[in-house]
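Team,

Forwarding the record for the chain on the shared tracking sheet. I've put the sequence and predicted structure together so nobody has to dig through attachments.
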Amino acid sequence: MATGARYKVQFRRIRKGRTDYRARKQMLISRKPRLVVRKSLNHTNMQLILPAKEGDVTLASSNTAELKKYGYTGGTGNIPSAYLAGLLLGYRAKKMGHAEAILDIGLYQTTKGGIIFAAMKGAINAGLEIPHDPAIFPSDDRIAGKHIDKFRKTNISEQLEAVKQKIQGEFR
């Protein structure tokens, strides 16, 4: 005679494909803030999150939509804008006294030279210490937007340097 259920229903966030609890547990065990990078077609969102018993606490955040305040007129869903958002988040985190983090990419597939790693490089260039392998970063030409300059009339690489100088000037 069979008793009990034949299978265990998974957690709701696993069923919906939103959380990898094994990876989350390993990040929580490290007790370091997580650099959470989430991307969409039009924007890249970044947050520095510290785990707590009551719930995660957001320490600093940035979004590619904020770059318009610094004079960036290019697209906000590309590698140069992700780099600038990472730079902005890194300077905000350093100003608040946070020096290290670990990267949390969620359920995204890792792609060498992708937007997620461009955002991470921006945070590292701002001074955050994040464990990484330099081989995963996009090339300097891609971060500067030279691959976009071929198709646009305006020069994204010059604009990137101007915005980078404004962000660095604000936090120095």
